[in-house]
Amino acid sequence: MHKLLIRTAVAGLATAALLSLAPAAFAQAVNYKADLTGAAQVPPNAAKGTGTLQATYDPASKKLSYTVNYKDLSGPVTAAHFHGPAAAGANAGVAVPAAAPLTSPIKGEATLTDAQAADLAAGRLYFNIHTAANPPGEIRGQVTK
To answer: Quick one: CA dihedral 93, 32, 118, 109, positive or negative?
Structure first.
């Protein structure tokens, strides 16, 4: 009985050690969202369009998967992408472009760098949709958990 307890304890310690060496392999995916509006643009605009972003980030693979739905834009989308790092109310360069087709829903995946993943987790990325009538961006939303 004593040997069984010792073996069990050793096996438990070995398992704990292995798990501590590979935390990313067991990390859970994190969900993110954004509400896209013209009022969130910097500077704000009077666009009537709206949209939503739903995203999931998998820390093990560093993969961001996202779906963007939008409606009532002034015209066809000319570009769409994640920008950062930037807080709400600030502008930044393109961090992750969205691939065509840019019709609603926009669906995509991207492998993030460690810096981009840190910006995502800290709420320093936003998604922006551009049109010919609004080249700097028609609707935008800060990406949050």
So the answer is: negative
